[in-house]
Write a structure and sequence with these properties.
The chain is an alpha+beta fold. The chain has a five-stranded antiparallel β-sheet with strand order 10-11-7-12-13, covered by helices on one side. A two-stranded antiparallel ribbon has the order 1-2. Strands 3-4 form a two-stranded antiparallel ribbon. The longest helix has about 35 residues, at about 260-295. Among the domains are: about 40-90, no CATH class; about 110-285, 5' to 3' exonuclease, C-terminal subdomain (DNA polymerase, domain 1, Orthogonal Bundle), CATH 1.10.150. Helix content is about 40%, strand content about 15%. A hairpin with an 8-residue loop joins strand 3 (about 15) and strand 4 (about 25-30). The protein has helices at about 55-60, 75-85, 110-120, 125-130, 135-145, 155-170, 175-180, 185-200, 200-215, 260-295, 325-335, 340; strands at about 1-5, 10, 15, 25-30, 40, 90, 105-110, 220, 225-230, 305-310, 315-320, 350-355, 365. It is an enzyme of class 2 (transferase).
Length: about 375
């Protein structure tokens, strides 16, 4: 970020929390991991004056009356000029640029948590699907889920729904949350989860076994052996598990707080058990990737690279000289992709590498 007063660039840093429950690295002060790609401003919304907050008694007195409010004419005329403007979209990430003589290079694991789920569950369909690194994993997943032979027939909306459903499973989202996210009914959300579990029986079995093990051990372990204690779970508290071929681990009745607060709490911790293994293992893989890249860089005398942002399963470096960016990209692909061998993973870990002058204008490198 340019600082004209000092004639130098301002460097923004954040605090990284490494001692989190799942092992995931989280940033704060400021949270640079949450900087959006784009922010849009719609001038037409200025025409509508927001209603002031009312107390319950005021709401009662206004019952049946027109509660809509208008701007005073002088303000309305001023705002009307703004509403004629085109909507504005800004890119906050463009403010973060490489220092002079440097270039930014990002390396992002492709579908990392989905690949971890495939490895841990050993679901034969997912494993086969993710061997094809050149294909869009979520299109393949949607085609399987919707029982279509051609992944190219999948629309962007269907792909997005499959992606949301997949991560709903990974993050332990229950039917209620899925229903709210997609503006559908609870039975419809439960049906989506059930059909997904039926399509990927290995995933359903993995979740079931993880929950059973979490009750027995009161803890879970990531792929590197990191332990998360789940003291609320005890062997006596586990729910009766169905022996059906493709169980749906989280039925709607489990999460209804009005039925039993204790059952709702149990369901929450059970979902945390599954999520902790997948999210924690993703953190393990990314940390090892950082170490491998650092070790490889020490052997390179003609490249200087600094890790400037940890973005969960993406790493961003500033690299100099910029002419060495292609060589550094090769190092990133080689070292990060090979992490799967450290964990004996059943799926490849493809890495997408991009480069550019600022965070917003990163372009994929061949």
């Amino acid at each position: 970020i340019s600082n004209k007063g000092r004639g130098k660039d301002v460097r923004i840093g954040c605090v990284y929390k490494t001692f989190t429950a799942t092992g995931r690295v989280v940033s704060s002060l400021p949270n640079l991991q949450a900087v959006p790609k784009e922010v849009s401003f719609y001038w037409s919304t200025l025409k509508n004056r927001p209603s002031p907050p009312f107390t319950n008694s005021q709401k009662s007195s206004l019952n049946g009356l027109d509660q809509s409010l208008k701007w005073p004419s002088s303000i309305a005329e001023t705002l009307d000029a703004f509403t004629q403007k085109e909507d504005l979209t800004i890119r906050p990430r463009s403010a973060f640029k490489a220092p002079e003589g440097y270039v930014l290079v990002s390396a992002d694991f492709c579908h990392l948590e989905l690949r971890i789920l495939a490895h841990l569950s050993q679901d034969t369909v997912l494993l086969s699907m993710l061997q094809i690194t050149s294909e869009d994993a979520f299109k393949l997943l949607a085609a399987r889920w919707l029982k279509r032979s051609d992944p190219n027939s999948i629309t962007s909306e269907e792909r997005q729904q499959a992606k949301q459903l997949c991560y709903a499973v990974i993050y332990g989202m229950g039917p209620a949350s899925l229903a709210a996210q997609n503006n559908i009914t609870l039975p419809e959300a439960q049906k989506l989860i059930d059909t997904f579990m039926t399509s990927f029986c290995g995933v359903a079995q993995f979740i079931r076994q993880t929950i059973l093990s979490a009750h027995e051990q009161a803890s879970v372990r990531t792929m590197s052996g990191r332990v998360r204690l789940l003291n609320y779970l005890k062997p006596s508290s586990k729910d009766d598990q169905s022996s059906s071929k493709c169980p749906s681990p989280w039925k709607a009745e489990k999460i209804l707080v009005k039925n039993s607060p204790r059952t709702a709490s149990l369901a929450k911790v059970e979902r945390q058990a599954v999520n902790s293994i997948i999210q924690g293992s993703a953190a393990d893989i990314t940390k090892l990737a950082m170490e491998r890249v650092y070790s490889a860089l020490k052997k390179e005398k003609d490249i200087t690279a600094h890790l400037v942002l940890h973005l969960h399963d993406e790493l961003i470096y500033s690299v100099t000289p910029d002419t060495k960016a292609p060589k550094f990209c090769d190092i990133l692909r080689r070292e990060m992709s090979s992490v799967n061998s450290n964990f004996g993973m059943s799926v490849p870990l493809p890495v997408k590498v991009k480069s550019g002058p600022n965070w917003s204008d990163l372009r994929e490198m061949d």
